[in-house]
Design a protein that fits this description.
This protein has 123 residues and is mostly beta strands. Strands 2, 4, 5, 6, 9, 10 and 11 form a 7-stranded mixed β-sheet that branches. The chain has a 4-stranded antiparallel β-sheet with strand order 1-3-8-7, with no helix packed on it.
Length: 123
């Protein structure tokens, strides 16, 4: 499975960040995978943001839940992250990934990773 992140590299403060993960080599509806978004701010560790399951159910980090939405397009075989009301603290490398178990993906254990895309929040 290959995952490729796509989206703007620069977002203005207070706007909504939108990224898409294009998946090839496997279907996002295949039992029983979880498709996650993870980010890594400069100088910090990776943070799991949320996931969408093979079933379409969504799961979010409590700290980001109020600002995060993950959706999918099963025809195009891709899933999308939207993060609202961004601030410079949301500047990070954003990754999409595939995992097998919800608790494992929450803990950062993934089977496959995209290469990541840099997003900078600045005016």
């Amino acid at each position: 499975v290959q995952l490729v992140e796509s989206g703007p590299g620069l977002v203005q403060p207070s706007q909504t960040l939108s990224l898409t993960c294009i998946v090839s080599g496997g279907s996002i509806t295949t039992n029983y995978y979880f498709w996650s978004w993870i980010r890594q701010p400069p100088g910090k560790g990776k943070e799991w943001m949320g996931a969408i399951a093979f079933s379409g159910d969504t799961y979010y980090s409590p700290s980001l839940k109020s600002r995060t939405s993950i959706s999918r397009d099963t025809v195009r075989n891709q899933f999308t992250l939207q993060l609202s009301s961004v601030t410079p603290e949301d500047t990070a490398v954003y990754y999409c990934a595939r995992g097998r178990d919800l608790e494992e993906v929450r803990a950062g254990v993934q089977l496959d990773w995209g290469r990541g895309t840099q997003v900078t929040v600045s005016s």
